[in-house]
Amino acid sequence: MTTPDPPDRTDLPIGRRVAQLRTRLGLTQQVFADRLGRSKSWVDKIERGVRTLDRLSVIEAVAAVLGVDPEVLLPHPARRAPATGLTAAVDRVRAALACYPTPTTTTDAPSQPPPSPAHLDRRLRHAWAAYRHAHHPQVMRLLPDLLTDIRHAETTAGTEHTADLLVRVYRLAAQTLVKLDAADLAWLAADRAMAATAGDPRRTAVAAIPLAQALRALCRGRLAMAAPITAAHRLLPAPSRASAPSDLALAGTLLTEAAIAAATCADATAARDLANRAARLATVLGDHARPDNGDLGFGPTTVDLARALIATELGDTRHAITTHQHATASAAWNRLPAEHRAAHLIDIVRAHLDAGDPQAAGRALVIADRIAPAETRTRPAARAALTAVLRTGPTPADVTRLAATIGLARQ
Question: Is the pTM of this model over 0.90?
Fold first, then answer.
């Protein structure tokens, strides 16, 4: 890729830089939007600064279409320095994913037997508990050994139990890596999860969740929509009240992921239809059901939270905020994992900024930090959201303190 000389653009907002580079290439907003898989309205809002371009994976996709290095679009303080302090941890997970264990043979030297599936299951449940509490540094420390040991167990004595463990650990790796903006590596882990399913519908459903998230992070919205829909149909060809609650919850989670992916493609009809289908399953389950293999909650409240994000993606800011306020006022909100609540509050910042309410955007980040500090202090998306709030002007003392804690300064 070429890197044009941008000294005169370094202080421009990112949307203005995108507009200038697009114009230089002779692309209309519609053509540019088509190449990105986005809507013309989305491009227009980005270029006018109405909407923030705050995810590195999206910035990289925009840069690829413009034929420039992502660094050209990023202001100096936001560039790819290891802001989260987790670069080494990501590298260790990458190294673990790069290993390909092979079955042992009788001529191999004796080796230490792998831990029992029950022991591995306890370790994996502990790692998932850390994820639910947004202890992402701890998860990243646990993942390399978990990946190695579970793959060794599956290779030496493959059983249904070890196959389940393998899909679950790959899912955990993928979802954590998405949060750390390592989308390419997350996709690799999710793809490994799919390969480990051996065609089992339940394992495929579990693996399709991180696959959808990784594809969405890579701006592959159509693929991110198709994968969970296919998995949901295989798991529950005809959902009914007689279906197992865990299957209903998994199918509902998949449909919710597909709905969010559809919104990123500006496919409002598909997004709303998929969200409605998820809502019908959630109504059957209530707000207490949890799918297996990860213990991530699913119910009416989680569907409403997704609907708020869908409305944000579709530019329906008023509906996004109303739905968000309704969902977070419910009793079920406080029963959701800390990771889920904090992640949602970070995501909803965009809606508040689009509505011209930076005070509410700042409050959302402060509350997210109280719920799960690691979610706000280690995720690039949280840093980008807080940076966008700081750019709006003077901020309350608690927002300023959070920025200082994270190491951000007003730009």
Answer: no
